[in-house]
Each structure stands twice: as structure tokens, then as C-alpha cells.
Amino acid sequence: MNKTWDIEQIKEIIPHRYPFLLVDKLTELVPGEKATGIKNVTGNEHYLQGHFPDRPLMPGVLQIEAMAQVGACALMSLPENQGKLAVFGGVDKVKFKRQVVPGDTLQITVELTKTKGSIGKGEGSIYVGDELAVKGELTFALVEK
């Protein structure tokens, strides 16, 4: 059975809110292991007003943040992590392969590859259709709220 998690359910897992919640729904969630989310990039995204007005592009840093939020859903859905925050510890080996523009639907997958204590790593990717847009490694730290 495939279950999807809507935006309200995502907000129960991670603390992000508009305008910085960059995941519209989850299509897969394996607590502590993996998550896949969807982000629909629309023409009315607030950041597109200035990046760039004549050729709107989703900024790369926001694509990385969207990956981090999907990864945080996998991490923060574990009962022992509730009440904590997942914050960036690092970003490595990021490659941008395709521009992300209004109208694109991003399929974002993050697999948690290593956790030790309050530090962990994940491998993330974003696809638009079957085209790879971004891939990279994320390091996170769990901190108390």
C-alpha cells in the first residue's frame, strides 16, 4: 500500500513553515532510512521575483534546502528524535545538472547513509521527470530545540 503524507502531516514532522517549507507532499517515508518528497515549482514562488525576473530559476541553495527537508522527514519521524531539530552540518559533492524552472515538479529523495550519536549523513537527489537536476551529500546534526 502506498501512502502519501500531505503538507499538514509534513508540518507535524518538521518545523518549517511558509515561505520556507519546500516540500508539498511525501510519497515515501521509511523512518530513519529514506524519504521521497514532491515540490511543485510554481511561477508565484516568492524568490522568483528577484531570481531572475526575466528568466526565473529556483536557486540552487533552495534545492539543497528542499533535499534537507525531505531528509529531515526521514530522520525526525523516529520517535527518539521528536522534540529535536535537524540542522545542517555540511554539504558535499553537490552537482547541479539541470536548471529548475517554474512548472517543474521535483522528485526529491534522500537516503540516510550513516548516523552516529547526534551526527549523520545522507545522499540526496532531485529529479525532474527522468532528468537528474541535483545530487549531493548532506551532513546533519541533531540539536535540542
From TrEMBL:
Per its UniProt record, what Pfam families does this chain match? FabA (PF07977)
What's its catalytic activity? a (3R)-hydroxyacyl-[ACP] = a (2E)-enoyl-[ACP] + H2O
Q: Catalytic site residues?
A: H51
Where is this protein primarily located?
cytoplasm
Subcellular location, record wording: Cytoplasm
Give the SUPFAM superfamilies listed for this entry: Thioesterase/thiol ester dehydrase-isomerase
One GO MF term: (3R)-hydroxyacyl-[acyl-carrier-protein] dehydratase activity
Q: Does the keyword Lyase apply?
A: yes
Task: Identify the domain of life.
Answer: Bacteria
Q: Which InterPro entries match?
A: FabA_FabZ, FabZ, HotDog_dom_sf
Q: Which GO terms describe its biological process?
A: fatty acid biosynthetic process; lipid A biosynthetic process
List cellular component terms (GO). cytoplasm; membrane
Keyword set for this entry? Cytoplasm, Lipid A biosynthesis, Lipid biosynthesis, Lipid metabolism, Lyase
Keyword Signal tagged: no
Q: What is its EC number?
A: 4.2.1.59
Q: Which Gene3D superfamilies match?
A: Hotdog Thioesterase
Family designation: Belongs to the thioester dehydratase family. FabZ subfamily.
Which PANTHER family does the protein's record reference? 3-HYDROXYACYL-[ACYL-CARRIER-PROTEIN] DEHYDRATASE
Q: What does this protein do?
A: Involved in unsaturated fatty acids biosynthesis. Catalyzes the dehydration of short chain beta-hydroxyacyl-ACPs and long chain saturated and unsaturated beta-hydroxyacyl-ACPs.
Q: What is this protein called?
A: 3-hydroxyacyl-[acyl-carrier-protein] dehydratase FabZ
Q: Gene symbol? A: fabZ
